[in-house]
C-alpha cells in the first residue's frame, strides 16, 4: 500500500498503523516499509510503500474497503 507523507520512514522499518473504518471500528496493523520516496519526483509524490504483516480476514476486508472507497473518491464512512 502507498502512504503519501512528507516524512517517510526508512526502508525496512516496521510500524504500527491504526486503520479506522467508521462505525466505531478500528484495526491495528503492523507493516514494514518496502520502499521510500522522500521528495516529490517525476514518479509521484513523497511517501512510502508498506507491506502489511499477518492481517486477519477482518482487517483485510476493512483495508480493501478503505482502499476501494479512496479510489472512488468517496468519503469513508459516509
From TrEMBL:
Residues 2-67 form the PilZ domain. Gene3D superfamilies: predicted glycosyltransferase like domains (2.40.10.220). It comes from the Bacteria. InterPro entries: PilZ_domain. One of its GO terms (molecular function) is cyclic-di-GMP binding. It holds the Pfam family PilZ. This is Type IV pilus assembly protein PilZ. It comes from Archangium gephyra.
Amino acid at each position: 500500500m502507498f502512504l503519501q507523507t512528507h516524512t517517510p520512514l526508512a526502508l525496512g522499518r516496521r510500524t504500527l498503523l491504526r486503520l479506522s473504518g467508521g462505525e466505531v471500528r478500528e484495526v491495528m496493523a503492523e507493516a514494514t516499509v518496502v520502499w521510500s520516496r522522500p521528495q516529490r519526483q517525476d514518479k509521484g509524490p513523497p511517501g512510502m510503500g508498506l507491506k502489511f504483516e499477518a492481517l486477519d480476514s477482518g482487517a483485510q476486508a476493512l483495508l480493501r474497503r478503505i482502499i476501494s472507497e479512496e479510489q472512488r473518491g468517496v468519503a469513508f464512512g459516509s
